[in-house]
Design goal:
The chain is mainly α. The chain has one domain. 67% of the residues lie in helices and 0% in strands.
């Protein structure tokens, strides 16, 4: 690896390690986390709870409650726990 490549990769690593400059209010940040967790639960429990839906279904903020409800209705104990994390 030549010196210019090494400097370039070091710069990328330095910028990646800096704190994000995005400013989110707490409500928006919590909503983003809920959507991310709902998407993860949809993928994880797809075979048992969501098999009748498209596997590439896009889960948004309005779908979080539906994902939790479906997990509780069709899932096992692990799905129930995932639902309780989504909608306590």
């Amino acid at each position: 690896m030549n010196e210019s490549t090494r400097k370039y990769l070091a710069e990328i690593g330095r910028r990646g390690g800096q704190k994000s400059r995005r400013r989110l209010d707490p409500e928006t940040a919590r909503a983003m986390v809920r959507v991310r967790e709902a998407r993860r639960a949809f993928r994880e429990f797809y075979a048992t709870c969501f098999w009748s839906y498209r596997p590439d279904l896009e889960i948004g903020l309005n779908d979080v409650d539906w994902v939790a409800e479906t997990l509780r209705r069709n899932g096992n104990l692990a799905a129930w726990r995932a639902a309780s994390r989504l909608c306590p």
